[in-house]
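Aim 2, interim progress. The first record below pairs a target sequence with its structure tokens.
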Amino acid sequence: MKILHVEGGRHLYGGAFQVLHLLRGLHARGHESLLACPRGCALAEAAAPVAEVHGLPMHGDADVLMAYRLRRLIRETRPDLVHLHSRIGADVMGGIAARLAGVPVIHTRRVDNPEPRWLVALKYRLHDRVVAISEGIGRVLLEEGLPSAKLRVVRSAVDFERYAGGCAGAEVRARLSVAEDALLIGVIAQLIPRKGHRFLIEAARDLVLEQPSLQICFFGQGPLADELTRQIAEAGLSDQIQLAGFRDDLAEILPCLDLVVHPALMEGLGVALLQAASAGVPIVASRAGGIPEAVRQGENGLLVPPGDVLALRDAISALLKDADRRAALGAGGRALMAREFSIDAMVEGNLAVYRELMESVG
């Protein structure tokens, strides 16, 4: 099978990393993949060994000429189907291009941001199938009017063995400028409002009184960096909370965390949560979107209502005080990832959608 994948993201994390996992899996199974992505993006270099990469200008939702460029690429390369992996204009412009070229098209939806029903009715008319990466996203789409016949659920995956290598504690904590005996919490998320960093800052005021050795690292980048720095300073927590930036060494850092906290208000699934669970790190997270599929209450973490600072504080406090419970939840996370979130399962799930669609149009 020959598949043209379209990904508009420029950085190799989140959805783009899922595309890379899929491309590698399809290559190993003997399928031919083409990748349309922004020129010079990180995914282009990583995918080159397993896909024919076409770097294109991609300028987001307002880039109406993207439809023309993708249509031309489809006509030149003649794929059996087109798989659209991101929004950022690719969902609409890619759908228009595939329709004009007469090629079946699939769109993967990775976020649970609500969309108005009129937009759902118009946009998803372009797609033969819509793949949600979690049951939570699937529910949002159905509630907004997506026909159930179009919807399929294929969960995101994690290379769990990559994160299960154990902790080189002293070296990693020195890298983070954190004391070796500190209790260390990590938040792995873009610095944007819906990720809820502010709720942890509020909760941390009480937590550091209970646990004077507590240190918190915000791993990620985004437009809220300056605002979060100000909030941390105003809370008197500049010595306890640091913005550690985007990291390409998370596979080494994660096993050295005592706890991962994810206080998001909305989340499609949360790849960082899958990575944390793979590393055997217990999690405290919001009961929002697809998060309860990645964090199972009492199995690999604790869930709290979104935006509830007191519940967040109490859940974190309970785990920081109980090392045995943290260890049990960490072991539960590793087992869950191996059982339900393997890369093979994700690749086979997408292949099943491809085959079903090709049979229906053939």
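The second target in this work package is listed in the same format:
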Amino acid sequence: MIQDNPALIDAIRDRFAHVGTCPFQGERIFFENAGGALTLKSVAETSAFYAAIPDNPGRINPAGQGTQGVINKAKDDLAVFMNASSGQFFAGESGTELLFRMIRTACLVAPKGSKVIGSSIEHPATRSAACRWAEIAGLEYVNVPHGNDTGLVTADDYTALMTPDVAVATILHASPVTGMGMDVAAISAAIRFVAPDCLIIVDGIQHAAHGQLDLDGYNVDGYAISPYKVFSRHGYGIAWISDKLSALPHDMLIDAPATGWEFGTRDAGSYATVSEVVAYFDWLGSEVSDETEPRKRIEAAGRAILAYETHLTNTAINGTGNLPGLRDMDHVTILAGADNPAREGLVSIVVEGHVSEDVVEILNQQGIRTHTRKADHYSGNVLTPLGLTDCIRISFCHYNTEQEIARLLGAIKVLGENG
């Protein structure tokens, strides 16, 4: 277990850039991981190396062939990391852009008059794309309401609204507002029980950093991540698509390979940084288990991350030492409840008598980085039904520590004492 091994926590933190300080602010505790996780030092070094190479991947010269090899290796690494025995990986502008592309393609091949199903908990990356392309393609959009008290949506919720004419479905793997993880495999099975040929596309952007990905187990057709939220850098997204989705009519160059989904010259550096991320999970798995196979080590790393991040969120909620937890502070309300087993490294709260934006600034002045979520086009689907205009999102990752959480609890406790 990570929490029982201080030396391992130190080794983990040593692999990340700016883990305890911000180059603009100085000393800083980073609880804004849902907005973009810390970057591996190896990612920064690798990115800089490939940024200086002028050759296009695939050209018949040593650099062109070498960078193409880097891209090919990264796709193989992704297949191990995400457990994909078929389909293909490709990079795009961002996770959001890739979700739009996949959903657009699925909607435009769907039979006229069929349906698109999604849920109200989803990030606008999928909800906006599904609603827009359903209307353009002459499809009916079906909204599955999420549970306001639980902050998630279930397979039973989908089943209640499923019909055989559902041709496209979207699923959110984890909410960046409530922090709750959805059972993608169960939801996918519920969809396919009623509509076996439905094209299912998953937003895995918030979930991916927690290290438990199993595409073969999900039985879906598309899955997108944003690597800057998985210890890499900004500027690109990664998608996986099934062989079925790969072969469907999609945006492509005339006479290009029929299953090609990438546009233009590839950035070898972005792919190379993916390999660094996978190597990190492999390393962590070797530290927390005796597994020898890469996939098994990655699975072990995912289990260790889940256990430690659950420990961190429980510490924030229940308290540590002589500090009360968030649940015991009368001036604090925890979104989706204090006891929610679906939580993935994130606690969103409201502090009575304080505008969330002000709380975030007060914490920031003390070197504690959090974030405000407002009832806008990003988070209104979650906050408005709760009668909230805003909340404070506190998001942890496995390089955070109990000592950092103690600082946070102390600062929030004072807010109640000062009124």
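The longest helix spans residues 294-318. This observation will shape the mutagenesis plan for the next reporting period.
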